[in-house]
Amino acid sequence: MDFDPAGADLSLASLFAGWALADELQRRLVADGFEDTRFADGVIFQHLVSGPVTISTLAERLGVTQQAASKSVVDLEHRGYLTREPDPADARARNVVLTQRGQSVIAAARRHRAALDAELRRALGTERIEAARLLLVDTINHLGATPPLRARTVRPPR
Fold first, then answer.
1. Measuring CA to CA, which residue among 89, 91, 85 is closest to residue 48?
2. pTM for the complete prediction?
């Protein structure tokens, strides 16, 4: 039996809309030469946009073991998005740092999200898009999900 999105409740409609937007963003990033980037990379990047962090800090923010955080960092290093550098405050520690490629993919994603927003406003109307955006923000606030967003400690659902 086919699923009709028009019958979706708010939870499913917002989830599927988010997936559609994420897929379109991913398609555009691939066209920009970031064919190896994945949606999940943003979970790591959110912790590095304000500056370098140690693996242990990254693991704590992600709510994972240091081994799991290290594995993700190694993968992103191999793809050229991150590097590790000595921590100037602690000779034993190494900081995880965005490379130029890492900064570039973040900048490209921001540009594409703004372009998608503008396209949707033209296609569906600014008032409708703004009303939908505000409804989703109100939902986030109502469900108490604002603090992790502000702290950049968002994790995918379990």
1. 85
2. 0.88
Burial label, 80 (beta-carbon count in 10 A; 0-12, 13-18, 19+)? middle
Instruction: Give the three-class secondary structure for 116.
Output: helix
Tens-place pLDDT, residues 84-139: 999 888 888 899 999 999 999 999 999 999 999 999 999 999 999 999 999 999 99
In the predicted model, what is the mean pLDDT of residues 21-25? Answer: 96
Give the 3-state DSSP-derived string for 21-75, with helices as H, strands as E and coil as C: HHHHHHHHHHHCCCCCCCCCHHHHHCCCCCCCEEHHHHHHHHCCCHHHHHHHHHH
CA angle 118/50/132 to nearest 5° reads: 30
Structure tokens at 71: 């594995």
